[in-house]
Amino acid sequence: MGDDREMMDAALFEMKFYQVDDAGQLYISPAVSKWSSVSALGIDTVIDMEGGLDEWIPTTPDECLYLYFPIYDENLPSLTRLEAVGDFGAHLIAGGHRVLCHCGMGFNRSALVAGVILHKLGMTGSQAVERIRERRPGALFNQVFARYLASLRSGLSDARVQGAP
Description:
It is a single chain. The longest helix has 16 residues, at 79-94. The protein contains 6 helices and 5 strands. The chain has a 5-stranded mixed β-sheet with strand order 1-2-5-3-4, covered by helices on one side. The protein has helices at 2-13, 35-39, 79-94, 109-120, 125-135, 143-151, and strands spanning 18-19, 26-29, 45-48, 65-68, 99-102. It is globular. It has a single domain (15-151), classed as Protein-Tyrosine Phosphatase, Chain A (Alpha-Beta Complex), CATH 3.90.190.10. It is an alpha/beta fold.
């Protein structure tokens, strides 16, 4: 029984990319260790909520856009900054880019930011929570983050990015 539990826990935390939109442009994941696994999916933008800069990010011009937004998996971060990061991700997706949101385990911080991006792209917050939990089992167990996302009403607000799907 103990071995089965350990295998299940290891599977939950393995480095895996979870596509959270239908078009294959928005992903969440736990900590990443190498660029090749990210670039293989055509991802060219990384939003990092984990503590510490990612050393694997390429430094070649135009290869990757990297946004470092470290937040705690506790209370909400600055809502002004969170909304700005959501606008940033939605704008890039509307322009055809692929975006990865990652944190330490890929359950809460990355899901919060991806949920805001999905909202900016037209989903209600409740739809975003449901979608993320469907695509990443165990995601958004941080009830503060889940409640915030669920409180976001129509994704078709003034903040919606022009041309977003």
